Amino acid sequence: MLGVFERTFNLVKYALKLRSYKHTLLATNIANVDTPGYRRKDISFEKLIQNYLSQERFLKTTKPKHLKEFSEGLNKSIKPYEEETMGTPTNVNLEEEMVKLSENQILYEATLQALSKELEKLKEAITEGGK
To answer: Are 39 and 82 in contact (CB under 8 A)?
Structure first.
């Protein structure tokens, strides 16, 4: 039974890391809106989650530095966008980045709510429904 909860917690943990990392990238894009030559960067959350879910095995480690899968996977998936945005010295559109940042924040909070629901289920299972 713990296996089901463990997989769910691992997925939520990975999703929160991705959302946090995407937030950092979007904030960096906003901060560099007027930096000449800067190219906006982003990750495809959906593609990374699909890759994570398609893995057939989950490797366990005793120390976080044993596998650098998360950071290496993110570094490979960061995409610089080359299209030009009119009126700015970069390809960053401030309004678009702000919308994406707000959307990412809402999805981060929704992921936290999903985690909270899973913890409630676990608590109910442990206490046998409150009896």
So the answer is: yes
